[in-house]
Amino acid sequence: MRRTAATLTATLALLAGGLAAAPSSPAADRQAASGSAASGLGDTVARAAVTTRDACITSVPEPGATAKVDICYTVFKPRAATKKRPVPMIMHSHGWGGKRAEQPEIQAWLDAGYGVLSFDQRGFGTSGGHAHVEDPTLEGRDVRGLVKVVAGLPWVQQDGPGDPRMGAIGGSYGGGYQYVGAFELLRLKGKPVFDALSPQITWHDLSQSLAPSGVVRTEWALALSAASLISDALPVNVYKALLEGAALGVWPDGSIPGTEDMVSFFRKNGPKWHVEHGRRLDIPMLLGQGTTDGLFPLEQGFRNWKRAMTAKARRQSIFVAYNGGHVLPAILPAGTTADTDPCSRKLAGGDFEKLNIRFFDQVLRGRRTGLRGFGKMHLATPGDRCTTIATPQANTAKKIGTVATLEGVGTPLSYPVAAGPIRVAGTPYLTGRLTALGLQNRAFYGLAVGRTPLDARLVQNNVLPINEPTPVLGEKRRVALPSVAVDVPKGQHLYLMVTPISDTFLLMGSRLPGVVTIEDTVVHLPVVGR
């Protein structure tokens, strides 16, 4: 635990410079003129053949208040866009703690002939209110109001009354607004109005992301709270809940008297809730997810791909996983570092932004771009290779016998699963008979690669917990493992790594010493080219 102070310091620094700066995030302050979009108030400035206008709409009040909240934005109009020659619009917003874009950050989109509307989300930048983490009744209303702004611009291509030709981009929190906006419009209008989305490194289920199996990702809970303190972005109860989760070791659900109920607070805040109510988006999407993402891991993207869109939409969509995302150093257990995007390079000959523009050129404008890879999932390995799969499901079973680890203390242990060469890409899991005789039994599991158990390193930095509040004796369990994409070379092995403690889940191990044992363990792997 010597790393606690250093970890939190690194987390806050990374969050300020990384989480807010998700792949399509702003980096500088803007001053927006307060006013009404309907009345056309705002400042207009011409820059490099682009006209920009800053303004605000008024949206629904904060809970318990009566004053409406300003949601502020900038519209970027390319010179070539006119009423006679309208262009499609791209909506953009920032990551957590960020602000809307300056022109240089979205210049490539303007050069490609798109208009852009970039906005400060509720609680950030010059917008008012607090961040409710994409609540449909609040942030959902905000996005709906901005769609009306776009629908009223005479130089934006329109598919019908109140239906502009429009896509959306943004990463992390900037992916969350895309889902809440499209799903809310689908719920109310019977169609999402957005014609295509490009959500990056974002979530399917917020509670599962922040606390898988009810075990809090402590570093991220504290970091998200700290990153919003300067602007007082979060409601008071969320600050309290995040600190409660970090202190108590459990995701607050209101069951402990005097604590908050984050399960209820976040229930509607993501695609999962809409999916549970029978809604699917029937529009093309370019989903980007980070293989080494420790906050919204690869599995969250897989779930959005499988559950948040229709089968028809998937055939018109592309899933790309790159080495990156919300990343913190993985020291215990030791992980790997990589910052590459071989799949965007393979599909579009460049980075994710180039792939993004080609994708929208094809699905919004109907242009023949030669873009390949639709209907498939393209995953980066740490070795900078791109693996294409049709499904992340496991297809191979490996028996490894008994797996045991100490609880609360001790070093990671690695158990051999398969010899290289082997390629694994998708979502593995393990099954077996679990025994843990203590209280609040916890251990963390992931896949690792190395020549021996002693030098094995965690694949793409992620582990997932088991959480058994009471004693269990020989009970059958299915244990989730982090989704991965990895090539195990000849001469090395794939291992199951088990650890009693984890950097990401700092101080979230078992409260009492003991042993967690899984007998008759079978590791189920998604093997490519078997």
Automatic annotation (TrEMBL):
Coiled coil: none annotated. Keywords: Hydrolase, Signal. Residues 73-317 form the Xaa-Pro dipeptidyl-peptidase-like domain. The keyword Hydrolase applies. InterPro entries: AB_hydrolase_fold, FrsA_esterase, Xaa-Pro-like_dom. One of its GO terms (molecular function) is hydrolase activity. Transmembrane segments: none annotated. Pfam families: Peptidase_S15 (PF02129). Gene3D superfamilies: alpha/beta hydrolase. It comes from the Bacteria. Residues 1-21 form the signal peptide. Belongs to the AB hydrolase superfamily. This is CocE/NonD family hydrolase. It comes from Nocardioides abyssi.
